[in-house]
Every structure is written in C-alpha cells, then in structure tokens.
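Table S2 (continued). Query chain:
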Amino acid sequence: MTLAWHLEQHDSALNWQAGLSLGFARSGERTQLAHTSHRGPLRIQRPFFPEGTDCPHLYILHPPGGLVSGDTLRLQADMQAGAQALLTTPSSGKCYRARDNGTFQVQHNRFTLAAGSSLEYLPQDTIAFEGCNAKFITRIDLNGDARCCAWDLLCLGRPAADEGFTHGAVEQRLDVWRDGRPIYIERNCFVGGEALLDARWGLAGAGVSGTWLATLQLDRQQLDDLRETFADYPQLALTQRNGLLIGRYLGHEAEHARNTFIRLWQHLRPLINGRAACSPRIWNT
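Corresponding output:
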C-alpha cells in the first residue's frame, strides 16, 4: 500500500505535519492490522481484543495534545473485505488560539471500507479554543454492504474556564459515500461572534454540538420506539436518510454529549454490526 500525504509545506519548527495510515485485513476468524505507517506525532497503541480476535480496538494517540497554527493531522484507515475494527481516542482533542496570520489548524480523516467490512470511529470531543482557526474534514467511502458508525462532537470555547467563542472560526465537513455516490454531505462553519451561535435558528447559545451516524435503516415503528427510548434526552434528535440513521446533539455539556452518543451506540450496536456493546476500556479512565 502506498500512502501519499500531500501535506502542505510549512516551517517545521513552528508546526507539526503528522499522519497515520492503517490497513485492516481479515484472516480466518481474526482481523489483523496488516499495515501501519506514520509520520510525526500521530500513532496507535497496540491493538486490544476485549471482545475477541475478530474486532480489535485501537487508540489513536497524538502526544502534543492539540493543534496550533499550521498543524495538520491526517488519519487514514482502509478496511478490507470482512475486517472489523473500532477506533477511539484517549482524551479530548484541542485546537488552540491561532497565530495572528490566520494559518489554519487542520484534521483530515479518510476511511475506505470494502464490502463486508465494519468500522466504528468513536473519538472523544474536540475543544475549539477562543481564537482558533480550524478545519475538520472527514470522508467515509463505503462499498457494497460495508457498515460504519461514527460521531463528531465539537465544543466551542471552554465554559468551565469562563471562556466563550467570541472570535475564531471552525469549519466542519462530513461526507459519506456508498459505491461512488454521496449519501450524506454536511458542512458547518462557526465564526465567533456571529448571530448563528446564539440565534434560535442556529445553535441557540449551545456550545456543544455533534453528529452521530450509523449505516442502519429502521422502519417507522422502530424509529418511533427509538425516539421514545431517548425521550429523556431532549438535546438529541433522531432521523434517517439514504440508509443512514442520524443523531444530532445540541447542548451545553461535553460530558453529557459523550454519554448520550455512547448510550445510543450501545443501544444500537447489535443492529449496526451484529455485536453486543463492548466499550473501549480507555473510556473508563
């Protein structure tokens, strides 16, 4: 497998250009990490197998702990036919205040799934500090009956530190394609101080927002039952489109948002990929 990073050129003394490429293959009853390569401070711990050898759990590690101006992180995962894996992160991601020249901080994820494979990408939240200038780009390419569950949680500012998001910018892109055709395209752009952040037609003052996606098609009764099950979570809205179940979160507490998405995943995992819920151990630390 050849990996082309296509990283922008910046002064390496001022920023990190980091990338991680993972390739998973099925061998008998086992999913193997058949390929891994990295550049810069983006790595994994060894695979864990808390639920058997057919579905490893991997923790994506970024030792610097956050992104500053000019930093670029690229994560790529390729799932061969029949392979299964769960990816997560041990802690919140962070995007710090940008330099005055407005250089971007970028995280780019690209996941490609062959028919019969399954990938779960369940990271912790990302905190956008006051004054950051960030881009988050995720593309998921599904082939055949490939299955996927993924979520994205964003915290604008740090309310616990009495810090809002009055200036700065965050751009989000989330694309899901199946067999070469787009089935979900999402674009968000949050600019500190703009009306969108506080208006009722926007975030309505909520600093935590998120999208939860799974390749799952429910009938009308199942969807109604699911909404009833999560009726005590008014911050969560559920819908479906083009073979995807979509959850939207809008609230004020990152921990509550994470727990909501985790509970939704635990409840639906048997329907998504036929496996009982098995939370990564790192979530308990």
